[in-house]
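Design job #97: recover the sequence.
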């Protein structure tokens, strides 16, 4: 396997620490570990499980790629998969310089850019992980959501040894589809959320929904496909579009932190409707996702 690959160089606008801080802000993220300046995650490739480790080296962001089987040699497809995952984790697809030029015309956004320069939204590598994470976070604080999700990963995710250290892959739909009612209750999932997660896993296994194919659909089609599933509403679908697909024009306007941050910055703290928030965000166009991310950083929340 290759030792090091360059993910981003000195010309990339990126605050590495700030961008990855959400993976430790609310506690340890078992499937997305960020410790001592190194982010690590188990990903699945065409040749089995690999560990990617991202870290800063001078002005560059490098990636170390390790296969669980030391005898396996990575081909271009494995390297491309790993680089694609790293690009999502670091939000490299977002057009930060263009957004900054746009934000310079808005005093609120301009001030936020000055404060958080180089901050990028993270995109989830796996759509199933994104949806399960969103379901877990429904109507509870993010600290507790991280705790119960970590229990899920440790209990049902595959443990993989890399260099003497145990890392956990996020549980697969196939694994969670086999669960019985009550299996997640000891982890402090509600029976309702347990039902949502198992139903989602079974829908994927049966072919009822193709999560990978959703990225090729328009926003409305993604919304319809996801909200047809039990336990997934507009809030979860919005976050899926924002934090997995990476659509620039999306806002999770029903999210309390999103609403409060916009109300505080643009409505003098006045409470306004979700629809009013959506109408207001139209002014940001394809920079809406980035604008929301920066306003949430000011508000002290990174979103789901």
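Job complete. Output follows.
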């Amino acid at each position: 396997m290759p030792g090091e690959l360059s993910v981003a160089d000195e010309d990339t606008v990126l605050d590495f620490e700030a961008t990855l801080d959400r993976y430790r802000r609310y506690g340890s993220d078992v499937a997305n570990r960020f410790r001592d300046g190194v982010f690590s995650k188990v990903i699945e490739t065409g040749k089995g499980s690999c560990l990617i480790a991202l870290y800063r080296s001078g002005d560059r962001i490098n990636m170390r790629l390790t296969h669980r089987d030391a005898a396996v040699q990575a081909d271009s497809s494995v390297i491309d998969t790993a680089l694609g995952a790293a690009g999502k984790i670091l939000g490299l697809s977002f057009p930060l310089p263009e957004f900054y030029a746009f934000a310079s015309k808005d005093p609120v956004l301009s001030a936020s850019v000055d404060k958080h320069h180089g901050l990028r939204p993270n995109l989830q590598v796996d759509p199933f992980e994104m949806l399960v994470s969103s379901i877990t976070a429904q109507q509870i604080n993010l600290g507790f959501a991280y705790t119960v999700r970590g229990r899920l990963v440790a209990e049902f995710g595959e443990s993989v040894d890399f260099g003497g250290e145990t890392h956990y892959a996020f549980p697969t739909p196939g694994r969670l589809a086999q669960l019985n009612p009550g299996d997640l209750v000891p982890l402090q999932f509600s029976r309702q959320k347990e039902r949502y997660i198992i139903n989602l896993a079974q829908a994927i296994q049966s072919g009822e929904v193709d999560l990978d194919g959703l990225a090729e659909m328009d926003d409305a089609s993604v919304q319809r496909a996801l909200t047809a599933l039990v336990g997934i509403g507009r809030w979860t679908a919005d976050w899926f579009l924002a934090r997995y697909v990476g659509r620039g024009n999306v806002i999770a306007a029903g999210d309390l932190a999103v609403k409060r941050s916009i109300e505080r910055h643009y409505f003098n703290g006045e409470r306004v409707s979700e629809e009013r928030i959506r109408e207001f965000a139209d002014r940001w166009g394809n920079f809406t996702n980035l604008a929301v991310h920066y306003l949430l950083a000011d508000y002290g929340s990174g979103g789901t």
